[in-house]
Amino acid sequence: MSHAAEVFRKDYRLPAFLVDQVDLAFDIRERTTVQARLQLRRNPAVAIADEPLVLDGRGFDLLEVAVDDRRLGVGDYQRTDDRLQIAVVPDRFTLRIVTQLDPEQNTTLEGLYRSGSMLCTQCEARGFSRITYYPDRPDVLSRFSVRVEADAQRFPVLLSNGNPVESGALPDGRHYTVWDDPFLKPCYLFALVAGDLACIEDHYTTASGRDVALRFYVDHGNEARVPHAMASLKRAMRWDEQVYGLEYDLDLYMVVAARDFNMGAMENKGLNLFNARYVLASPQTATDADYDGIESVIAHEYFHNWTGNRVTCRDWFQLSLKEGLTVFRDQCFSQDLNGEAVHRIQSVRQLRTVQFPEDAGPMAHPVRPDSYVEINNFYTATVYEKGAEIVRMIQTLLGRDTFIAGVQRYLREHDGSAATIEDFLAAHEAESGRNLDGFRRWYSQPGTPLVTITDEYDARSRVYRLRLKQSHAPSPNGAPKQMVPIPIRFALRDHDGRRISVSPQPPLLPAPDLILLEDEEAVLNVPDIGSSPNPSFLLGFSAPVRLQFAYTSDQLVSLLLDEEDGFARWEAAQRLMLNAFFELQASGPGDDTRALLDALQRLAARPVEDRALLAELLRMPSESYLASQVQPLDAARLTSARDALRLRIAQALTGPLSVWSAAAPEEPGASNAARRALANVSLWYLMSTRVNRVLDIGLKQAASPNMTVAFGALTALNDIDCPQREAAMDAFLQRFRHEPLVLDKWFALQAGSAIGQGVERVRSLLQHPDFTPNPNRLRAVLGTFWRENLRAYHRADGAGYRLLGDQIAHLDRSNPQIAARLCDGLLGWKDIVPPQNQLLRAVLVDLSQQPLSADVGEKIGKALL
Ligand code: PHE
Ligand code: ZN
Question: Is 223 a catalytic residue?
Answer without folding.
Answer: no
